[in-house]
Amino acid sequence: MEMTPTAHNGAVKGQIAKKVLMPGDPLRAKYIAETYLETPVLFTTVRNMFGYTGTYKGEEVSVMGGGMGMPSIGIYSYELFHFYDVDQIIRIGSAGALQDDVNLMDVVIGMGACTDSNYAYQYALPGTFAPIADYGLVRRAVEVAEEQGTPVAVGNVLSSDVFYNADASVNDKWRSMGVLAVEMEAAALYMNAAAAGKKALCMLTISDLIYKEGKLSAEERQLGFRKMMEIALAI
After folding, report:
1. 205 versus 2: which is more confidently predicted?
2. Known catalytic membership, residue 208
């Protein structure tokens, strides 16, 4: 561990690619590496947060879990940007649909990330910061989706600090503002990227329907997000 820049990641410099795909679930990272990457090498198992580097169609790419919530992805993405010279992080996660025309297994691209988090407090900004994705990554993701024949919805998502909210009206309020889906990490990732001068994108597969019946199992979440994964790899 003495040679590693952080206690949260077992990699030494040079073991992580400039491009990192970041699912929340470390087992999904393992699945992606073993399914899509050529000669994947495991570079960290610290706290069971698996990370791998390999190649995809000749391009070096890493995949690493980011955990649940903004504090978790905030730590991992900060360290990747600042300690491992990563240029871009693409979050590939799950989300709950807020709109009626967003259905199970649909792919959502988070152009912006609303949030109820106080994560931006650290920057002491004189107003409200609007966390957004890198436009080049958004544009390329839409192009790749079209090439692959995968419909995507592009717009605002909500990054919430609270999974079980005591206020039952919160989803109705975000839904009324046209927010597409709710997840728990994108806003922190986008803020970290902005502060570091790096690039970030959040793509989500709908795993739950908040206003209709339907949800995916844990196994379906882990293994069934192929369309999103393939878009992210091809960007």
Report:
1. 205
2. yes
